Amino acid sequence: MAVKVIIVGLGALGRRLAEELAGKKGVELVLIDSDETTCKEVADRYDALVLRGDGTDPRLLGEAGVQGAVLVAATGSDPINTVVGMLAKQAGAARVIVVLDDLALRTACQTVGVDTVVSPVISAANEIQGYIFGEESLDFSVAVAGGARMAELSPGPLVGKKLSELGLPKGSVIPLILREGRALVPTADTALAAEDVVILLAESDEKLAAAKKLFSAAPSGG
How far is residue 138's CA from residue 83's CA, in Å, rounded to a whole number? Predict the structure, then answer.
């Protein structure tokens, strides 16, 4: 059964994702952008339905066939991406991925039911593709120099714990926390808050997997 993927916004990230998905077996691709020239270019380049218009128009989303589809909101505007994500969920999209430059709107997206928020600084088009096809969990990791891995995680059961209390495996570290839209370089005494986005760096896939287990484990009873 084909997966319908709707990409709203054909900037650098949207086009890269379209490039990777166009012609892929089992994918029905729909591309939406407000710019006429851009739409003409991608219509000539990709095997996809291309619609010109405003992604915040419910009628356009209906024409795109949003119900049951996977939608990626990747315009250059965080507020527009948030609205597109909200409308897509209301219209019955199976999954909604919203791209935000400023993660201050992350909570708003989660409140309206958006499945996940991606920061293009941290995540890349191939990570979104992995999520579309169920090959990744709700966090996104990217390869960095020397085979190391970096992942974006929610604190989960570790809310309230200080970094010194996490028991991270050797070979993994948390160099950065995104909190209320700002980057925070944590210390050993920094406690994790519920809405934090934790950036985890590990020296290998194995170390990354071991560290991620801490963030997904169920809290122990007591």
Answer: 21
H helices of 22-156, where? 36-45, 58-64, 78-90, 106-111, 125-132
Alpha carbons 128 and 125: distance in angstroms, whole number: 5
| Distance, C-alpha 186 to centroid of its chain | 23
pLDDT in tens, 33-43: 999 999 999 99
Distances (CA, A) of 153 to 22, 88, 118, 123, 201: 29, 24, 11, 12, 11
Please tell me whether the overall predicted TM-score, pTM, comes out greater than 0.70 for this model: no
Measured between alpha carbons, how far is residue 161 from residues 36, 79, 185, 190, 202 in Å?
Answer: 50, 32, 16, 8, 20
Neighbour-count burial for 115-145, b at 16+ CB within 10 Å, e otherwise: bbbbbbebbbbebbbbbbeeebeebbbeeee
Q: Could you give the domains of the chain?
A: 3-136 (3.40.50.720), 143-216 (3.30.70.1450)
Name residues whose C-beta falls within 8 Å of residue 196's C-beta, 6 or more positions apart in sequence. Answer: 154, 155, 177, 178, 179
